[in-house]
Amino acid sequence: MRIANLDGRLVLKYPDGVIDVEKASDGRFAADPQAVFARWDEFVVWADRLRAAQARSLVEPFDPSRLKAPVPRPSQVFAIGLNYADHVGESRLPPPPEPAVFTKFPTCLAGPGDEVKLPTATVDWEAELVVVIGRRAVAVQAVRAWDHVAGVTVGQDLSERTRQLVGTPPQFSIGKSFPGFAPIGPEIVTPDELADREDLEIGCSVNGEVVQRARTSQLIFSVAVLIERLSAILPLTPGDIVFTGTPSGVGHARSPQRYLAPGDVLETWISGVGRLRNTFAEGPPHVSRTISKP
């Protein structure tokens, strides 16, 4: 199953169009894409019955430019740093003994085709697999972790390196939470749609030049382990999302360093899941341009 957010309405996504969930369910499920996660098990049963009934007459054509963030208002947004060995190496840091967890504040979420305003000249890209929680998870063992996943989507952990790295300790959460700094989409894909949910190609390009390419099987801490470790500390609730980490190839680690500029086109993909295409424009002056020490 694939679901998406079409102009603020929950839809089931098919190769030739979409089905509006509220209309097809006669109001049983709300149009709000965020609301479905609180009733995920019930929704999956209904959607499977709809598919079995081959309700093709309900499919309508749609404009992909109308797609928005498929999880518009998560209660919690987790992000994992240094979760690919090659990215650890290019960062010149030791491998973390435990997942390096921070947050991206929910107000930074963006859609799969949104334009992002650049607050400074040091904004970097980070292609990531994003996991969407479908069932409440508390002290879940890794072997059962995928049972709590609604699906996965494509994400970008955009990072303003000046703000992120000023001072000690670094300010990961605030440096990665400017408006538009978490594009996700274009849809949520349930794990059963994937031939191998543990081994997906992930990558991104800037203006057509591939700058990142890896496989999610190279994660240091797998999706299952991340859910186990996080849920051992606090509840994961339906509709929460987890950015699972980025592979090597970020601009900050290059020589010379390279960052996103106005007019750039960033395309991010995960095999079997989808592709984002985000553009960039110059934003208003921001405090990060003139950071000073206290």
UniProtKB/TrEMBL annotation:
SUPFAM superfamilies: FAH. One of its GO terms (molecular function) is hydrolase activity. Pfam families: FAA_hydrolase (PF01557). The keyword Metal-binding applies. InterPro entries: FAH, Fumarylacetoacetase-like_C, Fumarylacetoacetase_C_sf. Residues 77-280 form the Fumarylacetoacetase-like C-terminal domain. Keywords: Hydrolase, Metal-binding. PANTHER family: FUMARYLACETOACETATE HYDROLASE DOMAIN-CONTAINING PROTEIN 2A, FUMARYLACETOACETATE HYDROLASE DOMAIN-CONTAINING PROTEIN 2A-RELATED. Belongs to the FAH family. This is Fumarylacetoacetate hydrolase family protein. It comes from Catenulispora pinistramenti.
